[in-house]
Amino acid sequence: MTIAGLDVGGTKIAGAALAPRDAAVPGWSVDDVLARSHRPHRIHGPEALLDALEAAVRDLDEQLAEAGHAPIEAVGLAIAAWMPRDRESITWAAHLGVRDFALRPALAERLGMPVTIHNDADGYLMGEAAMGAAADASSSLLLALGTGVGGAFIADGRPLIGAHGLAGELGHVTVDESGPVCSCTARGCVEAFAGGNALARDAAAVPAAVALAPGGRPSAMHLERAARAGDARALEVLEGAGRAVAAGLRRLLPAFDPEVVVLGGRVMLQTADLLLPVIERELAAHAPLQGVPQPRRLELARLGDHAAAIGAAVLAAR
Which PANTHER family does this UniProt record tie to the protein (predicted)? Predict the structure, then answer.
């Protein structure tokens, strides 16, 4: 059956439709992606969420029909939200104005087909594990630097969910207990140094970044531009972000022992040439379990804006 995956972000819904599985062909490839979509949204509240998801599925169905493919028969959803272990409901999705809503059964009823829901980071890593940067690995770990820092761990095709559905919040691993306050209210999380909001906060103290920003309110993008122009203070801030990511990985690698670490998210991918050498250097200098040889693979995410949508569809196909 044809399966759709939808990734609901703060301002957009990315969609992907995957071809019916051929039992004789193991694994997935990018050739299995039959259609893609990308549409902005202004979701606020449960009904608006259902309306937008239904419209996204219809968009994909129209593309499939035009290309002569079978219609969608199941939907997987990846969404940035707190949700319980059973993945039946949304506990809280601040950017969508949705709280305590039984999303899975409501969407299944609206669409008249099976629906699964997962955390967006689980979808992201599942996409990369199915046909991207970790496609040849049996276990993989994700750190995604975007507005915040997301994370996930997958082993043998299954994401780690945890007792309360909250496993994989790797951006909230503490790397400096006297560090900046994080969005979670703790101090010194990886996100408090390396997320896009954290970089924008630090960019405000970098004159070269401020000068590049309309209205004098710089973002991570302006910090990156200042760094690429050779500004020492901008480079220092990004150096600190890279050290924080490495410090987080030093804590995570012994705990999870992944075959591959996938580094993704908009901030990471736009600044990879600046951050990755710092991360590699710090890991080499301060490797965990130094007496034990450890193959270490760091891979940049490859599937772009549709990684989580593809992963959501793969999860729905299980």
Answer: GLUCOKINASE, ROK (REPRESSOR, ORF, KINASE) FAMILY
Interstrand relation of 12-18 and 2-8 (parallel, antiparallel or unpaired): antiparallel
Which domains occur in the chain, in start order? 2-132+305-316 (3.30.420.40), 139-301 (3.30.420.40)
**Phi and psi for 163 in degrees, rounded to 5?**
-60, -30
Q: Could you tell me if 9 and 120 are in contact, meaning their C-beta atoms sit under 8 angstroms apart? A: yes
Question: What CA–CA distance (Å, rounded) separates 11 from 43?
Answer: 8
Write down the pLDDT at residue 295: 58
Q: Report CA torsion sign: 119, 108, 38, 5.
A: positive
Which residues lie across from 74 on neighbouring strands?
3
Please name the helix (run of DSSP H) or strand (run of DSSP E) that holds residue 91, with its range, or none. strand 90-93
The overall pTM is greater than 0.85? yes
C-beta separation of 303 from 127 below 8 A = yes
| Contact of 122 with 158, CB cutoff 8 Å | no
pLDDT tens string 5-34? 999 988 899 999 999 987 667 789 999 999
**What is the rounded average pLDDT of the residues 287-302?**
77
On whether the CB atoms of residues 79 and 15 are closer than 8 A, the answer is no
Give the tens place of pLDDT for each residue, 57-80: 999 999 999 999 999 999 999 999
